[in-house]
Amino acid sequence: MNEPKTILEMLGHPNLGHPTSPRTLAVIGLSDDPAKPSHSVSAYMQQHGYRLLPVNPSISEVLGEPSYASLSDLPIKPDVVNVFRLPKFIPAIVDEMIALGLKNLWVQLGIVNLEAATHAEQAGIHVVMDRCILIEHARYKTLLR
Fold this sequence. Notes:
By secondary structure, this protein is an alpha/beta fold. The chain has one domain (about 5-140): NAD(P)-binding Rossmann-like Domain (Rossmann fold, 3-Layer(aba) Sandwich). About 30% of the residues lie in helices and about 20% in strands. The chain is built from 5 helices and 7 strands. The strands form 2 sheets. Strands 2-1-5-6-7 form a 5-stranded parallel β-sheet, with helices on both faces. Strands 3-4 form a two-stranded antiparallel ribbon. Helix 3 packs parallel to helix 4 (about 115-120). The protein is globular and about 35 Å long.
């Protein structure tokens, strides 16, 4: 968990076998409120070429993208599932990822559920937890070009 190579792979480092085309991020808990971190972080990622797939059943659209009720409702498999939800919701997200064959889980800064992380890793899911994807992207962006 949280290895630099895993972070770079999730961000789409071209020297690690990833295409330079935009990566897709399913953002669970993406809010349409610009004051919320999920909104500002996702807007930053979108501005840096990532395609957003918002997952929030209580909104219809955010940042110009349609919102989906669950990971199962997404039209494509995302490269990364980025989570802005309380720790108690992470186990169900992991279970849905396992059922769908999704392989990359990024849980945002301040959100920790070690049992869910262990379960995810045992199922072959790569995990980054308690890290901000914006901060990590900014740290590594010269390598991601």
